Structure formats: C-alpha cells, structure tokens
Amino acid sequence: MFNKTVARLTYKALLGRRRALLLCALPLLLIVVAVAVRLLGDVDDDVTKQLLGGFAMATIVPLIGVVAGTGAIGPEIDDGSVVYLLAKPARRSSIVVTKLLVAIGVTVVFSAVPTFVAGYVLNGDSQQIASAYAVAAAAASVAYSALFLLLGTVSRHAVVIGLVYALIWEALFGNLVPGARELSVQQWALTLAQKVGGSGAGITSEVGTATGVTLLVVATVGGAWYASRRLRAFTLAGEE
Amino acid sequence: MTTLHIDHTSRWFGNVVAVNDITMDIGPGVTGLLGPNGAGKSTLINMMAGFLPPSTGSVTLDSAPIWRNQEAYREIGLVPEREGMYDFLTGWDFVLANAELHKLSDPAAAARRALATVEMEQAQDRKISTYSKGMRQRVKMASALVHDPSALLLDEPFNGMDPRQRMQLMRLLREMGDAGRTVLFSSHILEEVEQLASHIEVVVAGRHAASGDFRKIRRLMTDRPHRYLVRSSDDRRLAAALIADASTAGIELDWNEKALQIQAIDFGRFTEVLPRLAREHGIRLYTVSPSDESLESVFSYLVAA
C-alpha cells in the first residue's frame, strides 16, 4: 500500500516552498509562548492546560493539519501535475494512503511534538498533562490529515474551507457552543487526553472515550476511502 | 501494435457539447488531430488518456475500455498540455519518479534512456523551474516515453516551441511513428500537421469534419469558395467585369463598407483575373483582402462539405 515514490514527491512538495516556513512558524510560536509564560510567572497545571488545550489543540493542531493535509494533494490537482501520478498502473488507494501517511507524519512532527515540548517547558509533564495533550494532538493529526486530504481532492478552495473550519469551528465554536463540540475532531481527540492525563489533571471532553475513538477512526478511514474514490474518477476538463 | 478506437463517442459538459458523435480509429504511425481552438481536441485526447469518461459511446485501447482502467497506462504515454509538473524536482528526478511509478525493473536505466531520446542529458540535473518552454516539453516527452509505450498521446505539443525545438520534436515523433508506435498529436496549425502526420483527422465544433492524408485535406481546404473584400475606383464596373468570368459565383455591392463582397469559386484563376480585368478597364484597386481566411471559417467549410 505504501508507495515510496509518491511519498518522496509528497514530502518534497510539503517541505519545500513557502509551506515549510508556515509549518515551522506555528510550532515555534507555541514554544516561544510557553517559554515566555514560564519565565514570567508561576505556572501551575491549570495554566498548562489552558495553553495546551486552548492554543495548541484548538489552533496549532488544526492549522498544521490544514497546511499538511490539503498541501499533500491540493497543489498537484490545481496545477495538473497529479496527471503524472495517475497516468500510471498504480492503485489509487495506495496513492491516497501514502499521501495520508506523509501528511500524518508531518502534522505529528509539527504539532504533537511541539505540544509535548511546550507542555514540558511549562510544568515538566506534571499529572502527565504534556503527554496527554501530545497524544491527543497526535490522534487529532491523523483525523485532520485525512479530512483535509479529502478536502484537497474535492475543492479548489480546500485551504480556505479548511482554515474556516479550523479557526471558526474548532477554535471558536468548539470552545463556546456546546452542540458544536460534539462534532469536533478536537473533542474526539481530547477523550484520549482524558485517559492519559493524571487523575488530578482534570482534562475533560464533550464525548465519551468509545464515541471519540470511533468517530476519529470513522473520519480517518472515511476520508481516505472517499479521497481514493475521487482520484479514481479524476477528470481533466480540457480546453473548453 | 496498438489501435485506439473511438466509437460513436459524445461528451458534453452541462449544456455544451464538446464532442459530438465521433467515430475514428487511431492506428500505428503519426496521426494529427487538427482543429481550431475549442473544437474538442483536448476533450478527445483526455478521453483517450483515461481522464474523462465519454457521455455516450466508447473509447477503447484495442478492446479494453480506458476510463478507470489503470492497466491501460502500460501501453499509453501522455504528454498533457498543462504546464504543472513538479517544478521543484530536477529533470532527472522527475523522469526517474515516472519510471518508478511504472514499477519498471530498472527505473534508472529507463530514465537515462528516455532523457537521451529527447536530448536532455545536459540539463537533467537542473530544476524544472529553470527550464524553458521547449525543455519542459522535452522532459514531459521523456516522462511519457520512459515505459516504452505503444501509444503516445500529445496535446498541443508544439505550443510555444521555437522552430529548432519544433523540428527536433517532429523528427522524434516521426521516428516513433516509423517504429510502429501509435502517435497522436493535436494542433490548430495546418502546416504543423501537414509536415508531420501521415494521417489527419479534422475536428470542428465537436464534429468529425474530415479524415485522410494531408493532400486530401489540403485540397479540401484550397478548393473551397473564398470570399474577398475589394475596394476600387469604380466598384460597379469592376463587378460587371468580374461576374462575367467563371472564377466568381457572386458579387455584392456592400453599401455599408463601400466595397465589393466577392465569392470566388476558382481561387487560382480569380487571383490572376482580378488584376488583369482592373488594368484592362482602367480601374484602380484600393483594397483586396480575403474576408474569411480565419481558420474557423476554413474549418466550418469542411464541416459543411
């Protein structure tokens, strides 16, 4: 299922150009904020939770997910170069799975890892808060990558739609409107943080663990499946 | 030996019919797909390349359908018209990646051979983003040739190439046709097609307008009635003299244009008769211009024929 050539092309596309700058800037910002907070005052578990939950999980992870997920396929579809991948006797599902794995890898490296580093800087993983959020960020990375990869195969405006979803739904409604929280990758992933976090950490999620994990799996598998379908029926419109 | 069959194929986009009930077979040798812009050439090539399903009818490679049939790409090489091609790679990386995606047993050797065929070894280690239009076109060719396909589809391959690059690509395509490959390229320029293709298929406004060798197509094109707009010192007398000659079929005194609209049915004779009659009658010619030399009107005449 894994195609080394597709993987090479995808990560070169993702880590080249301006995208790499964006991918580095966001986690760097998170760590700078964590260091600043640490230096400025007393950091307790609550402050750590607020920064990791309210900033890392709610903003950084979905944003990196948008950049990596849509970037893994969207630009190729936009400029037509995806034709070179598709005019080959290769399974469409293996192209999608490979691209998804690369997008997940990039999202984990640029969001889950910095989340742990920021948490560790803040309170040294007390109550396993840093680990808990890092695990949740990694799980969210998987689902976001699949959803935004799918979005890249469906719409030319994948980045804009992805940003609207990430910033308005996940960061704003996800924190304010109770109903929206249940349909949020962030909340599903937080069920894992709840499990990993210490008893005193008090990390909460809107959904139960079983529901959260099921929805994460459904979103990931469903996204990958539908993206393969889209590629199987990829058309060039021609000169008209 | 591979033959592409297009059988009673139509393709529409919403209300627009891009390809209208076309039937043609593309066999070994070089075939030119000729037609004005927007005639449906790209739509046809996209269907043959498996990137567009026909609305009705069938498009097959020998007997296998091409749409949603990835195995067809073992036989087909495609040179798309669009420019997008992983600009951040070097030419070598790009062609090698194409060879690997074909799962060839020795991708590096295949890439080396393909780049040599298009004479791009010198520039193969430069990034594609630094290439000229002609170099990009050649690297695209190399990527399409890397798996030694029996059918090669090229969409407007000569667009933006300078004359030397054009000659080089023509020579290459001619060699491939001579070697028994099925080579199909599209173009809206008659001279290009005439120089290269042993067989021509003409498409106009989605319809199959003509089919044959270039002599037949050329004759169809020059034998058609030509329209001319002529201004002179005495339009009426000139009109009277011209209509008496067998080379014209109709003349109109166009009051808006203050000119004659002449329909010539014998092109060669008309071009010789017009200045002679003007001289004999002491009439000065101010304007002589063909009014329907656009490719579009040449082609639409073919459709009507």
From TrEMBL, chain A:
GO terms for cellular component: plasma membrane. Signal peptide: none annotated. Keywords: Membrane, Transmembrane, Transmembrane helix. The chain crosses the membrane at residues 20-40, 52-74, 95-117, 129-151, 158-177, 207-227. One of its GO terms (molecular function) is ABC-type transporter activity. It comes from the Bacteria. Pfam families: ABC2_membrane_2. This is ABC transporter permease. It comes from Streptomyces nanshensis. The lineage of its organism: Bacteria, Bacillati, Actinomycetota, Actinomycetes, Kitasatosporales.
UniProtKB/TrEMBL annotation, chain B:
The keyword Cytoplasm does not apply. It comes from the Bacteria. One of its GO terms (molecular function) is ATP hydrolysis activity. Belongs to the ABC transporter superfamily. PANTHER family: ABC TRANSPORTER RELATED (PTHR43335:SF11), ABC TRANSPORTER, ATP-BINDING PROTEIN (PTHR43335). This is ABC transporter. Residues 4-230 form the ABC transporter domain.
